[in-house]
Amino acid sequence: MTATVVETPRTGPRLRRWLFWILASVAAILLAGFTLLSSFRGLVDQGLYSATSPSSAGSKALVEVLKQQGVDVVVTGSLDETRRAVSGAQGPVTVMMADLYGYLDDDGLEALGDLDADLVLPTPSDDELDILAPGVRTTAVESSDDTVDAGCGIPAAERAGEVSQADIAYTADPGDATGCFDTGAGAYGLVRLDQGDRTVDVLGVSDALRNDSIPLAGNAALALGLLGENPTLVWYLPTSADLPEDAPPTIQELTPGWVTPVILLLIVVFVAAAVWRGRRLGPVVVEEMPVVVRARETAEGRARLYAREGATLRAVDALRVGTVQRLSTALNLSRSSDLTEVVSAVSAVTGRPSAEVYDTLVGAVPAGEADLQALSDRLLVLEREVRAATRPD
């Protein structure tokens, strides 16, 4: 019986062994926390058409250029703020409105239409078109070109020349509507309605407002021309503040104020309990335990597993590997000897043809358990002959 003595690891060697993983874990936690904090800080500014977002979907670049050109840009987040900005402006006003999440109902859209200001509506919904741009309808873009020419008399479009292909095309009833950037079949990427004392521009070329695509073609000239016609621009993205008073409450409004502190307290309690229990249990102590595993038991157990799974090839491979190793030892061959050297040496001491030895050690593939048994007997006979030939007299 052989006893295996295991010493209890000391704190110093264990700490040095795990130091790299501890430092890597701490670095990963800090990086994840920094990333999460950065994402929370920039969450508000990641939306499409955000006037303060430098992201690819934002419009900060356009807003900054408009300010440099002397346009007074007022960013608003509610209809009341927009109404006050329009009424307090000196001179004509342009309102750029993009209701991305449908906060404005019909009453809010009608109130927006009553403002004394030109409107620019990038990719508006059907409800917005019905109220703010009657007679204009959405349609599919049939042209596959990357850019499209102006083809109209609107000054901003003429200066642009050509712009990126529209995301959405529009058709308009004949009358006071002017279409620019023909996308095919009488549909346009820009439609301007002349409503007497003001204009309403329906813009399907959303690339003209985005940071990542405004430098392409004449996108910048088109956006600056439409939004910079008047000295004051109100950049209006509706928010939840525009929801009607009788609207269903949001999840934040339904959540009691004590829920968040309780969740934070539970997290602190969980971490404290984990640390407390971890310190209470202490390090693992490994005792000295004699263990003896007989080779016969291991071989029989492995054989039963192979038989149960029908792993004939795996079984014969195990037999051959063991036989080759024992033959190499009996023939005093080095560990680096290849199978060809083993076959030659076995053939030399036993007098058997090399082809027969190779077939026994490598080539023969048993078709079933009977063939496996026969091959096992051949391996055993071959090993006995080698031991008999190399055994000293």
UniProtKB/TrEMBL annotation:
A family per Pfam: DUF4350
Record-linked InterPro entries: DUF4350
Protein name listed in UniProt: Uncharacterized protein
